[in-house]
Write a structure and sequence with these properties.
alpha/beta, Collagenase (Catalytic Domain), two-stranded parallel sheet, 8 helices, 10 strands, about 25% helix, binds zinc ion
């Protein structure tokens, strides 16, 4: 229900960060706003200053193509998205992960972006990560980005598959507007249907992270906050077309399509895996590498997707 996010415990990053080292160079710390989930025009924070440049998103999951969202039973939508959805935005938003990259990054249909954050009871979201994610969107697109939420999600499931997550976007997510493209970021309790998944991109406009799984993937050297930042950025990267989900640069990992071969990139496949701490032996990367950034610039400049 639309329970205000009273309970959305902003995860105190301090919790596991006995070793402050965990927080790498990764991005700045944008303003975050925790909105209480309220109807419409919920918490809206617009990021302004241009800043860091990186973001990431996650795995190329099953493209779900289905209807668009319906009004949320409890939580209403944001104000920006009040007008009738732009057909191009609407059509593209429900395609496979990565296909929304042109709408999000290049000038055109979407003049404003919304990061619609929904948190299932029992899950928690890190405010710094949300703020940083919005800032990355803003920096890479040059468009204003508003954070709506976090708003409470009405869902009691403890195992989520891609279809169910897409359904949440359709039924409880905020709708796109005439020139507003909405990106849904869900914090879900429990786990994904497949084992070992810390985060997923299930549709061009929808990503989800699993804080319980992230908590299980920590180590004495890697905090949950650090992993969350890496995973959300990784999933965002997928939504923004990385790697080779929008353009065809032939640089993605043959064994892990949609991912970078560079262990130093947040788009490396292991970032969204529960083995992240072991595979990196320390904090995972939280930034895009120069090749990732070049792709994002190309998309923003209007590079067209491959046939
Ligand atoms: Zn991935």
């Amino acid at each position: 229900m639309a329970t205000p996010l009273t309970g959305v415990a902003w995860r105190v990053a301090a919790a596991l960060s006995l070793l402050g080292a965990a927080c790498g160079p990764g991005g700045g710390r944008p303003d975050t706003s925790d909105g209480d989930g309220r109807p419409s025009a919920s918490t809206t924070t617009t990021t302004a200053a241009p800043a860091t440049g990186t973001r990431g998103t996650s795995g190329p999951s099953a493209p779900g193509t289905t209807g668009k969202r319906a009004q949320a039973p409890t939580t209403a939508r944001g104000s920006d998205a009040t007008s009738a959805p732009n057909p191009t935005i609407r059509r593209t938003a429900v395609r496979a992960p990565g296909q929304f990259a042109g709408v999000l990054l290049a000038p055109g249909a979407a003049h404003t972006l919304v990061l619609d954050v929904r948190v299932q009871p029992g899950a928690s979201a890190d405010g710094d990560t949300i703020g940083r994610t919005a800032e990355l969107m803003r920096a890479q697109s040059g468009k204003p980005v508003a954070i709506h939420g976090p708003t409470s999600l009405s869902d009691s499931a403890q195992t989520h598959d891609a279809d169910a997550i897409r359904r949440l976007a359709d039924t409880q997510g905020e709708a796109d507007g005439a020139d507003v493209a909405v990106l849904h970021l869900f914090y879900l309790s429990g786990r994904f249907a497949d084992d070992g998944v810390l985060g997923v991109a299930v549709r061009a406009d929808t990503l989800a992270v699993f804080p319980d799984e992230i908590a299980s993937a920590t180590s004495p050297f890697v905090s949950a906050a650090r992993i969350e930042r890496a995973v959300v950025t990784h999933e965002l990267g997928h939504v923004l077309g990385l790697v080779d989900l929008y353009l065809e640069t032939n640089r993605d990992d043959a064994e892990h399509p949609g991912h970078s071969t560079n262990r130093g990139s947040v788009m490396y496949y292991a970032v969204e895996s529960d083995l992240v701490a072991q595979l990196f032996g320390g904090p995972p990367p939280v930034d895009f590498d120069s090749s990732d950034l070049a792709d994002l610039r190309a998309i923003r400049a209007g590079a067209a997707p491959q046939g």
